[in-house]
Structures are given as C-alpha cells and as structure tokens.
Amino acid sequence: MNLQTEHPSTLRKLISEGTLTGHTSGMAKGYIQANVVILPSAYAYDFLKFCFRNPKTCPLLDVSEKGSTHFPFYGKNANITSEVAQYRVYRYGELVESPVNIKHLFNDDMVSFLIGCSFTFEHALLEAGLPIRHIEEEHNVPMYVTNIPAAPSGQFSGNITVSMRPMTMQQAIKATEITTHFKNVHGTPIHIGDPSEIGIENITQPDFGEPVTIKENEVPVFWGCGVTPQSVALDAKPELMVTHAPGHMFITDVPDSQLSD
Amino acid sequence: MNLQTEHPSTLRKLISEGTLTGHTSGMAKGYIQANVVILPSAYAYDFLKFCFRNPKTCPLLDVSEKGSTHFPFYGKNANITSEVAQYRVYRYGELVESPVNIKHLFNDDMVSFLIGCSFTFEHALLEAGLPIRHIEEEHNVPMYVTNIPAAPSGQFSGNITVSMRPMTMQQAIKATEITTHFKNVHGTPIHIGDPSEIGIENITQPDFGEPVTIKENEVPVFWGCGVTPQSVALDAKPELMVTHAPGHMFITDVPDSQLSD
User: Which listed residue, A5, A217, B82, B219, has the most CB atoms within 10 A of its CB?
Assistant: First the structure.
C-alpha cells in the first residue's frame, strides 16, 4: 500500500481503525489536508467571526453543523470524531488528553472547523523548483509568535503566529507570486526579511517546530500559520476544545487544485 | 457640491442629517458601497455561516460587534443607525416600515453585516469598455430568482438571485476575466447564455428591478446578486430584520481598489 497515492477516504478509514497512527505529511498526495478546531457551540460564532477577520492566518475551509460529525463540502462521509490519527483535548486552556478518537467527548452541542494548512501551497512551491528547507532537513517547519495582533473577535484575541521558509530574494518573489493564488491556505507572505520587524528576537529559536538552516544568500520568508487559531482559542480558555495533534491533519476529499484560483 | 467626488464620511453625514435622501448610485466614486443586513444576535451565527458558504451571492465585507453601530474595517467612524438614506424594517418577514433612521429600533443585541455590491465591479467593466445596459438605459439592474439552491445554514436556505447584464460572447469572456479579480463582490458569472438552464422562464420579466434591451448578437450574463441574503433571511421570518432600501447603499470608507486582487 502506497500512502501517497491512496484515496483520502481509504486513509481515513485506516486511521479510524487504528491501523494508521503517525503524522499525515505526504499522504494522499494532491488532496487538501486541514487543521482541526472543535468547540462548544457557545464559542462558534466568535470563532467563525475570528476566521473571517483573519483570513491569512485562519483561512476557514469548512464548518460543520452543530453536533454533526461530518462537513458539508470537505468531508461529506467523514467522521470527525475518529478519522484524525491523534487529537489534543484542552480544558480551560490546559492540555488534558491526547486520545486517538473523541467519541467519549463529542456531543450534540459541538461545532467543528477545518482551517487551511500550508501543506497545500508547499506542493506548488516544490513543483516550481523552490526550496522547502524543513522538508529537505526532514523535520517540522519552524514557527514563531509575532508582535502583530490578530483582528479580535469576542473573547478571541492575541498575536499571530507565522511559519518560516528561507529562500533567496528572487525565490521569495516567485513564492509570493505563486501563493497569491492560494488565498485559502494563508496566501502571500506576512513578511520577508528582518525578523525583528515583526517581533521575532531569535530566528534560531522558534516557538514551535524546529529551526532550519538559513544560507548566507537567503532571507527568511514568513507566512501566516494555522497554529494561530489554536493558540488564540486556547488563550480564551474555553471549558473544552479539541484539535488535531501537530502534523496529524484531517485529510479532506477535496483536491489541492480547488484551492488555487 | 459634487456628490461623485465627495468623501464617504461627508456624504454619510449629509445622509444622517437628512440633507441627502436619494439612492447612492454614482456617489463617492472609487469607494465601495455595500448591502446592509441587521439582525438580532440569535440569527448572527447562522447568517455569518450562510455568507461563508455562499461567497458568490453573499460576499461578506464586514460584521459589527453585537450592539455596535460601527464596523471594524469598512466604517470605523460610521453610525449604521442613521447613515443609510433609507432603511427597510421587516417583522416576521413582512415589511412594516421604511424609516430614514433606525435609532428607535436599534438595541444592544443587534449585529450588522455589510455585503459586497456589484457597483464595485461595474466601474471596472465600464473602464474596460464593456456595456452596462441598465446604466445606458438609466434604470435599475434586472434581477431574477433562479432554481439554483444556496448552500443552507441553519434556518437560512432558498434559491439564489442573480443580476443580468447583456453582452456579446466576446465581451462576456472579457467580463469573466475582469470579475475573476473581484471575488469579494460576486466574482465571476454564475451563468452565461440560456436563462432556462438556471430556471428563468421569461427574461423580459425580472423578479426585481427592470428589464433591459438584449441585442440580437448578445447573450445574457448572470452574476450572483446581493438580494440573495436579504430574500433568504426574509424567508427565515426573523422577528426583526433591517436592511437598506434598494439602491440606498451604505457608503464605506474603503476604496474599490481594495477589493480587486
């Protein structure tokens, strides 16, 4: 079985059965993978409004009906309570559990959100011959909390988080051109160059993920990061919040090409 | 005083004072005008979700905080209770009043939505030398209810409404190319050609607005229409809903160029 070429529904079934347990990077090539945020309905309106107001960091792909385990567009036959390989459960902002399904937690009052992930545009950058250093170095992308405030919505507020990929300035311009067409997965960079301009003091010490090599002729290129909605939601300390575990994304039924415009 | 070149804030002040009472077509050239929907907060989440799910007919520009009379981005110093020249007030889906302000109705529980309007892309079409027949014939654009269902959200559901502009097929292709860049104001056409394919039986009898001349070498070109969210919201029969009166739009502080991408 080649996990790269399997259909999303097959992979989600294997995940649901516990046969597939690792991260989903590189799986179901050509299909959109998404960040997951699940909240009690009392938070749904403000969180939806937060996504609308912060499209570069929180590009909303889909939202479930209250209590529904599937999605209108991105996973009609999916079950969000079991088809993510690993979940994180937070109560009042504290991680309390990392289960392989959330059937014991899910109830009729919960709303699930799918948020775009940079996996989608990384394919397009690689195909254009641009370097993705963290893939070359085989580890997670470096992520940094900036001093740029997100547009607040109700109890959701905080600074945005960015991911970073080093490139030459020529490559950064090409990458900006390409990501213009991926508005639903973070779009163009938030910043190019001097990290201190966006409040990053030490580029060698990311807040999440792992550092990457920045070559002498390269500049850091920063994109909005899907960690932002999670971190902002956690700051609001909801009584219950469920997310995917990092790298263990929800594999949707929708091809990457649908997100390019 | 030239209403075409006045700043939006000046015009809104004149509207608020009752000095300016007519429709706003052609005013504050170069600034975005918007459809207005105001609802009790109990409906806000489902309506926001409806806009997210129907971007071509309900392109959401901004949403107020609950009880706030201004908008975070499109009218920071505006007052939505008095700066629209004429309002429509509906109770349980019935028109009950067409006041010049809504100060007597507005309360801390209401949420205001601004939705993109085709005035914005019409400027761009005209500048490209494309015909806008209803402007040539100096009346309102013809609008039709289709048989295409909107993606439902909670109690909001129904078929989408389209506006129609006749053009040659060559012009229709050019118009599609141009409106690709106006995703926040309806974007590309919903349909080009045979009206019966989208459930329109008689093109000479629009459901709203007035009919226009279609020349022999022309095809009708249909765009998603901002009447859709109003009609869908009315079908849901909320106890209270306020909108702008047709043509009496909310003039925002944001230039048209911000909506092109």
Answer: B82
